[in-house]
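PT: before anyone asks, these are the final sequences, not the draft ones from last week. 497 residues across everything. Please model them as a single complex and drop the result in this thread when it's through.
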Amino acid sequence: MTPPRKQSVVAVLLALSSFASIAQTSSQPQAPPPTPPSQPAPIVPRPTRTLILIDPAHGGPDSGAHLPNDLLEKDITLAFNNRLRALLSGSNFAVISTRTSDPAAAFTTDQRAEIANHGHPAVCLILHATSSGSGIHLFTSTLTPPEHPTHILHWDTAQAASVPDSRLISNQIGVALLQAKLPVILGQASVPPLDNLICPAIAIELAPLGNTTATPTRVSDPDYQQRVAQAIVAALIQWRSKNAGSGATNTGAAQ
Amino acid sequence: MIPRYQRILFWSLVGGIFLMGAFLIHGCQQAHKRLTALNDATPIAAPTTASTQDVTLYLANDADGSIAPDQQQIALPQDPTLRARALLEHLLGEYSLPTSTHVLQSGPAVDDVFFLPLPITTPAPTNTLSATTGLPQQQKAAPAHTAQSAGEMAVVNLHGSFVDNHPSGIEVEDLTLLSIIGTLHAAFPQLTEVRFLVDGQAHDTLAGHADLRRAYPAVDTTTAPTTPQPEAAPIPQETTKP
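LR: through. Structure below.
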């Protein structure tokens, strides 16, 4: 076969195949046009699971404060962490803790801040206990919020942008504690790793509960811890519902 | 005739008495050394006749987390660093009184206080020679401190035993630092920053909580008790904490 004849045969075959494909598409039944639904499907409200990070301070060789009756601060913070964690989980919060036991080598404060910053929690709660003072002490960072926030955060001042939110949540927890008839002191302090956290962060320090009729209630008292934990959870639930209403809830990256 | 076993028992008891006596003497010596180390009675200045003067001490209260100024009359040395040390020793001595609202253990608390002009500059290197003249280069010292450009920084060198015996807790440690800072600020208005060392070395925290790595601004640290405000936006800044 000569080349021109070969080309004409190829052209005829191509024309036949295109006709066949057109005939096939025309023979297929047309899909019905999408009709608008007569009734909108019911929207099931999906519960938001706000991520809370709890940092029971100290641990391992760092025992923290030595409290009366041979109690160690690291054990008190761990017990309070377990109590608070259970209540928060029961209230549909997602919770992560920097430690759930007493490891041989605990994380440094910088490592705790790294864990918190990687998780992008909505709120960070740092737990402490002391034998000085009375009631519950709530501390936020001493940093000043930046006038012109930037995307670049310095490690030592990472908390600065979150300070207004931290103080707002701290105040809300304080109000809830007062409603539970627990004495509260609000303040600002420079406590590692508070200034290194990018989430709204509050350091919660449990002190003995002053009692006018008897000896002060110790920080290891389960009822005292339970009352404090319940008040904290109530404040966080209120804060979450308020933010959910305004649509500004940071539910965390772990969702 | 005394039986052999009774003689052995007798001399064993005598030996035991001597051993216990030696142990007791050794324990007494150790305790004496420990107490001597705690009560360092080294004079900080030559005895001079100084008239008393008004000073403002910023006294902390653990019960409500407040700091309030208190006017007192005390005699202080004239040299600024000795004056600052004596002032802080007097302030921290107040906390060891039975009526104190911020209880700290008695004993030496402050080893030294230094005043450094700001900004702190690094010394020019002296071992580099100019390529053209062969003489040591007159290099301009680079500022090593950018936070403050004026004023002075006080470096408070705390005694190790003071830190070891300090109560542990965020509030109690923070109040001690604020009390020191406020008192220094009132006595030395030219101060703009305060830093803390322990036995001449940088230290992470005072007693496990309050950060000692940072420089604190020297400001009036009067702190009123702060309670939560229902439905408040950010908490009103009643305090002037650094």
